[in-house]
Protein 1
Amino acid sequence: RAKAGRYGQVCYCDKNMLEELERRRRVIQILKDSLSEQSFEMYYQPIYSVKSGDFHYAESLMRIPDSPIGPIYPSEFIPIAEETGLIVDITYVVLDKVCKFINRLLEKGIQVGSIHVNFSAVQFSQPDLVDKVLEIIRSNHTPMSAIEIEFTESTLAESTEVVTEFALRMKDNGIKMGLDDFGTGYSNIATVINIPFGTVKLDKSLVRAAMDKSLSALAVKNLSYTFKQLGMKVIAEGVETDEQRSLVEGFGVDQIQGFYYAKPMPGDDMERFLLEHERR
Ligand code: C2E
Ligand code: MG
Ligand code: MG
Ligand code: MG
């Protein structure tokens, strides 16, 4: 149907568009509520270390439980949180929740390597980002080395200098930095080298491609070797099958993350998972 918009233009909105707009409006409200009530949950996905055969690392992934509009996944709510700027404060709450989770594990004598936290590009527009991050970790008395911050290539494209400066400040404080989803963006190896990351995560699409074509496999293997020669730790993401596991192990990756080992799970389950795998 036709609707008179501002300035008198006519806007044709079909039913699907209106439904989409309404859903978006609801998601924004749910994000605002779950931020102010801090009611969103962090899930954790174990990361397997190839050499030692143990699980002392994990990635934290945000979840919105009991949504009144049915399940809302990160692929839907993270972009909305980014567009509205809500992600800035959400990330601070995420970091605080992760610190408290690490403390809980350490108090129970469970060994923790580090827990990865995702940062969006928008985060880097905040001039007080470094101070805020340090303040949250310090006030929780969490070891700096137990946190690894992940960001994607798109962040680099938007603000290489800001990210470089941030990464240096984090490194000075013993906080680790990792590049997420390598292979999905546009950055080249030169950009990667100029920023002090300790870790590169090969995106699941690279793992898939390497399974399909032997030439791709050669390229991904060489990529993995290059990063390792640069002194970085390499993680393969999205590994679902035993075939994929053995392929990426052949690439010399240090760590593997994927449904093959475990899906993301609530903190209580993660704690049990870690205990069970420690006792083996
Ligand atoms: P990501 O950071 O690359 O996280 C990995 C995603 O891959 C997660 O999706 C995880 O559940 C999924 N995954 C892990 N193993 C496998 C596998 O074997 N197969 C497949 N098909 N998928 C696998 P999830 O939790 O839906 O999150 C999607 C994205 O949303 C994340 O991608 C990240 O970019 C963003 N995200 C999630 N939580 C947060 C957060 O707390 N803050 C920010 N800024 N972004 C977040
Ligand atoms: Mg990530
Ligand atoms: Mg990733
Ligand atoms: Mg991703």
Note: DSSP finds ten helices and eleven strands in the chain.
Protein 2
Amino acid sequence: MIEFRQVTKRYDSDHTALRQVSFQLERGELAFLTGHSGAGKSTLLKLLMVMERPTAGDVVVGGQHLNRLPKRQIPYIRRHIGVVFQNHQLLFDRTVFDNVAMPLEVMGVSPTDIGRRVRAALDKVGLLKKEKMNPMQLSGGEQQRVGIARAVVNKPPVLLADEPTGNLDPDLSADIMHLFTQFSQVGVTVLIASHDVALINAMDRRQLTLEQGRLIAGGHSGH
Ligand code: ADP
Ligand code: ADP
């Protein structure tokens, strides 16, 4: 579902963020992306979101070569990639329902379908009863689950998360990880950038480890 082939990203002569990174993630696989600050994790996620383009090599998602994608196609590709942020980026001037509905409204989905799909997403994260509330009234863990519902509301085959448990205590973090596991079990490919060593070890999943832009573990192909 996700493939990096010898991907190098150089921002300028002093900043090479990724060096010949190669790996594949299959449909339904859940993996962690680890490494110290500055190792290249955000850059790798940005290449998948087509916020940056590789300097060399290929990034392929669902058979699509992202580096050859014309600009006008980028919004369509992004619909296939759900993203969860550490600070969840919810809007506090609208309800939980309306926050989750946002991606569907952008796509022009009919109100009936929006209602059905938003409630299905809220049900998956256990927040169906809180659809009318303002995110401000929710706990940190619940807010993060609203962010996850929004990321999966259009059923993307790929889910990316950037430090999704950064502000949560261990119990809530485990709940969030359980949700990610459930999505992977229904075929979503999940890649989670995280520093949370205890949590990652408890999960016992594949770890892609970056060090100064090189993939030093988890690539499975000798890189
Ligand atoms: P991480 O997410 O692991 O902290 P980043 O991908 O943010 O790592 O950064 C990797 C390297 O690339 C760092 O040396 C960083 O300073 C550099 N870098 C990131 N973004 C830019 C940019 N827009 N311009 C120049 N250098 C950048
Ligand atoms: P994080 O640790 O969350 O990646 P940073 O402060 O490293 O946060 O980066 C914030 C933003 O600045 C990111 O979009 C990153 O790509 C960009 N950035 C990081 N390093 C540089 C750099 N040396 N020059 C320009 N932009 C950079």
Note: Residues 215 and 223 are 7 Å apart (CA to CA).
